Amino acid sequence: MARIELSATFLGIRLKPWDNGPGELPTIIGNAMAVDSTPSRFGVKGPADPSDLVPELSYRFFGKWTDYTNKRTGRTEKQFQFSDYVREKPATREAIIAYLVDAGKGNGIGQGIAEKIYALYKSKTIDAVRERPVEVADRIPRLKTERAEAVAVVLKRQEGIEKVTIDLTGLFSGRGFQKTLPRRVVAEWGTRAAEFISRYPYALQAFRGVGWKRCDDLWISLGLPADSVKRIAWAIWYECKSATSSGGHTWHNGLYSSSSGIMGRVARLIPSADASARE
Fold first, then answer.
1. How far apart are the C-alpha atoms of 86 and 7, rounded to whole Å?
2. How do strand 27-33 and strand 4-18 relate by DSSP bridges?
3. Quick check: 65 and 141 in contact, CB under 8 A?
4. What is the secondary structure of 175-220 as a DSSP string?
5. Helix 271-278 to helix 229-247 angle, to the nearest 10 degrees?
6. Which of 88, 173, 181, 232 has the least CB density, counted as fewest CB within 10 Å?
7. Residues 6+ apart with CB under 8 A from 276
8. What's the pTM value of the predicted model, to 2 decimals?
9. How far apart are CA 258 and CA 98, in angstroms?
């Protein structure tokens, strides 16, 4: 089944998240609602930080529809099984206020102040706080300028993370990478992650479960030069690391051997490497 994108409002977690082990996000099962899909209210399931999924906020979920049998009622229900998600810019009054309250935690923007800001700016509320925090603070009693500016920083970072997560999800889609990789990559390299990986896909080998083959396939699919010295260098690094891991030493006899040495194995990974190394 093809991977699809679904925009929906998250309604809340239904069951206690279960742990997937060290370094992995827990799996959550919750409820969501979408105006432009059938059914309008449905279950969602996938890896997530429970604190990231805030009730009444809108998200774009990436995944597929599945059938779920409710053990309590015995009925078959539609469930959207997602592999990743990003927040979307809210559209309704409730969603805008909830989005602003979440961004304003610790910076003086609670429910009451968020409602006052919305009363002034309506659908432009998020844009106003993000781009003109000083003006907003001047118009809202008890909202200090420095706190409004701090929330603006949070909103700008969220906007950047939303965009880069979508870019990475598209970059990795259909290539066998782990479902949680986009979020892990963003945590490591921030809002420039997609740009960085597009130039250095082999850097993904730093993440558990990502090997040479998938990174090399990504390199080729991005249209990067097959005979690049960088590609050969990464292949040498990979083979040296593999030999060290299996042999327990760092000295490699027969480095340029065409059969058993490091360059011999690199030449099997990249046929052009053997000729390049001897030039």
1. 10
2. antiparallel
3. no
4. TT--TTHHHHHHHHHGGGHHHHHHH-GGGGGGSTT--HHHHHHHHH
5. 100
6. 173
7. 227, 229, 232
8. 0.73
9. 63
Tell which residue, 36, 4, 14, 13, has the closest CA to residue 170. Answer: 4
- The Cα–Cα gap between 45 and 17 comes to 10
Residue pair 30/57 in contact by the 8 Å Cβ criterion: no
Note the pLDDT tens digit of each residue in 240-251.
877 766 555 545
Coil vs helix vs strand at 33: strand
Span 89-101, mean pLDDT?
91
Q: Is 60 helix (H, G, I), strand (E, B) or coil?
A: strand
CB-based contact 27:47 (threshold 8 Å): yes
User: What phi and psi values does residue 14 have, to the nearest 5 degrees?
Assistant: -95, -40
What the block records as the tokens of 52 is 């990231």
Confidence band for 90, pLDDT divided at 50, 70 and 90: confident
Length, in residues, of the chain: 279
Neighbours of 7 (CB within 10 A): 15
Give the least confident one: 1-5, 57-61, 64-68, 170-174. Answer: 1-5
